[in-house]
Amino acid sequence: MIKKDGKLIGQGKFLWRNLALKNKKIKLAAFGLIIDREYQGKGLGKNLVQLQIKEAVRIKADILYGTTKNPIAEKILKNLGFVKIDIPVFYIEVLTKKKKKEENNVYVLEIQKGILDRIRKEKKLLIGDGLL
């Protein structure tokens, strides 16, 4: 959470879960963030992503996952070493229990070497319940 003069101007979320990739479990960490429009372009989003990377390393995640359609956010992710993956990503919608396709662009940062190659070999990726 980022506050200025008591006002919330930015926030991030971070969670993780184990996923199965062709008989191998991986620890996927995921993040999301939002910055108040008035404070965008000041490096706050980049700082929040850097904190998420540190947390992913701390918990020994294999990969850090984020999604976006925002071109500025995509540039930040790429500059921090994230790679866009082009295989379809699905999740289970919590209320309906139906499988849904992720509509945003998916970016991952490999924390443990070799995991990105495994993900690229998959024909699709199911990340589990709910949007991450």
Question: What keyword list fits this structure?
Answer:
132 residues, alpha+beta, Aminopeptidase, six-stranded mixed sheet, three-stranded mixed sheet, 23% helix, globular
Describe the structure in your own words.
Helices cover 23% and strands 43% of the residues. It is of the alpha+beta class and 132 residues long. The chain has a single domain (2-129), classed as 3-Layer(aba) Sandwich (Aminopeptidase), CATH 3.40.630. The strands form 2 sheets. A 6-stranded mixed sheet has the order 1-2-3-4-8-5. A 3-stranded mixed sheet has the order 7-6-9, with no helix packed on it.
Q: Uncertain runs with pLDDT below 50, 5 residues or more?
A: none
Strand content: 35-45%
* Rg, Å, rounded: 15 Å
Strand order of the largest sheet: 1-2-3-4-8-5
The number of distinct structural domains comes to 1
CATH top-level class: Alpha Beta
So how many helices? 3
Structural class: alpha+beta
Q: What name does the CATH topology carry?
A: Aminopeptidase
Order of secondary-structure elements: EEEHEHEEEEHE
Q: Kindly state the mean pLDDT as a whole number? A: 92
According to CATH, the homologous superfamily is Gcn5-related N-acetyltransferase (GNAT)
Q: What is the number of strand segments?
A: 9
How much helicity do the residues have?
10-25%
- CATH architecture descriptor name: 3-Layer(aba) Sandwich
- What does the largest sheet look like? 6 strands, mixed
Cα separation of the termini:
18 Å
Shape: globular
